[in-house]
Please model this.
Amino acid sequence: MDFFDKDQPWDWNSLDHSSASKLLAGQFPGSGLEPFGSGDFCLAFRHGNEVIRMARRLDAAGALKRESRVLAKIAPRLPLPVPRPTYHAPTGSPPFTVHDEIVGEFLTREDWEGMPPSSREKAASDLASFLNTLHALPIEIGLECGLVQIEAAEMAHSLQQEAADTIHPFLEPNVQRNFDQTLETWSSQPEVRRPGLLHCDIGPGHVLYNPSTLQLSGVIDFGDLVIGDPARDFIYIYEDFGPLILQEVLSRYAGKEPPKMLPAIRKWYLLEAISWTINRYGERHEADLEHGLAEIQRELMEAA
Model:
């Protein structure tokens, strides 16, 4: 039996740490499986010095496999520690990966802003160096491992169609016009930067640091790896770390180019906000829907 078998002994819709630990018991006999966080795609456990990440959705199983293949090729080339997972798909359990734990604490906006200037600048420089190195790697590595390539024009066109039957009626008439004009324009704009390998989720939950030395100690969770415009990798730095830290990282990443990259970062941020809001509409999350609509309106007004 493999994990695509309809007779699999688990239900993707009800996987939690309790049920997952029972499925993993045969692979890791004895005690020691400690819940270590969760996300939409995975359930994580700590086992000694190792981290186990189990797929909690069918598409996450494929993402874990791609992640392990890509990281095996690129981890030695990156300037910060990253996981080097091994992929497992045993009978009787959802697929999972195992890797040595990357030691450190999540770097938050408050942590970063509270650093002395020299430490803050070092963190910005180290993250910029990491992203520069990642984005400069040959995209053939990702293509060989099954990564998809994303393009803003294609996404804008698709979202315009999806929004028409979902969130568009909830926008104010003047916002609707701006929304339509913006997506129509973006749908025909060609990419201007060389595509690169993208982490796609660089933010406080995936950048680690050492609180004693105030230095970055690693980057984790590469499950969203894709190929695309490097500007896409800065959207959560913009959203979660804030515009000042974005400027610090971007000036070290792009030199004199930050003003040219900022519009592309804001474009990608708005596209992802639209996508997120459409998903919240589909899942009937009213509070999230209202938040998403407000964020779309704010971004459109600031971009005008």
The first helix runs from residue 17 to 24. The two ends are 55 Å apart (CA to CA). The chain has a mean pLDDT of 93.
